[in-house]
């Protein structure tokens, strides 16, 4: 059961969440012609009248870029201001998640992006741990990640997430928590809504952008934190067998944060995860605005 925030932004105004409804004929509902973002916010542990948002500017820039792929001009600064106003109106008092969404809002049956109405809405819900912080089990999905030549993977295009949905259900119904998708070249790509990292010989390794991954904002944060901690990093293609013999594996994402992987297929991974724990601890402190070096990553809203 989800606890949605009371107010949403819909059709250029703030309305009660229950009144923010689209028609069953909405174009994006039929063709997946939408793009979404997602960001976390928490009440400031040091000041309950303040809300802290993690990397607001990066999230707004990425959604604006995703909108461009749908031929929709939606400036990042407009998205940011609406989200700020959205938070002020809701005044959430628990950890929460914001879902901004751009979409073709016309009531049409022709799949297209030209000469069609587009719109933007924002809603939110309370959100704690998306995955178990103690670790998850993963299997390799029988479904492959799409290629950038067939779908613009640098945007969070809603239609692309049918693959994630198929893979997630396949994993859960076969006794695992999460799925790992390979790309069409058979290389490790990502999980159903998270980027993936592994550690071998004290080096942090993750698939590069040329492996059809999403350009994750948490992924970027993890790489920056690791380098600042003096951990060697490498972005490259990864074979599936590397996960089975890795010293550590973890997933990263806005919802998942940093989640350890304890099992891949029937291979159990080490329970000692020093690099994962260092990065997870640092990221948690940053989101609470307890790390002065990373204060530019935190946007503070007075409520």
- Report on the biggest sheet: 9 strands, mixed
CATH class of the largest domain: Alpha Beta
Number of domains: 2
Q: CATH topology of the largest domain, what is it called?
A: D-amino Acid Aminotransferase, Chain A, domain 2
List the helices and strands and how they pair.
Layout: E1 7-10, E2 13-16, H1 27-31, E3 34-36, E4 39-44, E5 47-54, H2 56-69, H3 76-90, E6 96-104, E7 118-126, E8 136-144, H4 161-173, E9 178-182, E10 188-191, E11 195-200, E12 203-206, H5 217-228, E13 232-235, H6 240-244, E14 248-253, E15 257-264, E16 267-268, H7 274-287, E17 298-302
Parallel strand pairs: 8-9, 8-15, 12-13
Antiparallel strand pairs: 1-2, 3-6, 4-5, 4-6, 5-17, 6-7, 9-10, 11-12, 11-14, 14-15, 15-16
Helix pairs in contact: 2-3, 5-7
